[in-house]
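Shipment paperwork, digital attachment
Item: protein structure file
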Amino acid sequence: MKSIDGLKFAEMIELGAHHLYLNADYVDSLNVFPVPDGDTGTNMNLSMTSGAKEIEANAVTHIGEAAQALSKGLLMGARGNSGVILSQLFRGFGKAIEEEASIDGKQFAAALKYGVETAYKAVMKPVEGTILTVAKDAANIGVEVAETTDNFIEVMEAIVMEAKASLERTPDLLAVLKEVGVVDSGGQGLVYVYEGFLANLRGEGLPERTDAEAMGALVSAEHQRSLQ
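Attachment content:
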């Protein structure tokens, strides 16, 4: 696969949103920054679901127009810090490709990078070790890999792999995460969205969360409650 149009992009968004929805409780359980209110997964889910509904209601083959619909839906549905950042990531993404009827892997990665730049500018005091870092690292690798292959799936695979690696590094960048023993909740939510994108491109089912991950989240959440 070398390129995608608006309809394929809508499918990717739908599966990314669904994967986030299925794991929203887990993302909630990781939520310790900026405040441990346990709603990051819920907020990201509401935001992404709003975006998915808007792009579905405005099904078009022109990916630039589809991305604008997604951006509108995300902005209307944005909840909490994580939802707002997510909406800004895809607002910048949509701006970068607004004139394109279809895009290849190189354009996709470049648009993600532009989305990251947009999100950083929208946050008054960007903090590393959050969803911003995960999005930035993943986009940068995507841009690099897209220089060596025109296979869209390979680019998305690299983005997902780096997003996961970046997520695992978040406790080294944000002390509160290391103290509690969790990865960043917003970054985890973004990983689920990107995993959904990749599953759609591959024509595969969504990856399942392991029992160990679920148990680890519960233990971490209980630990955090004991610190309050």
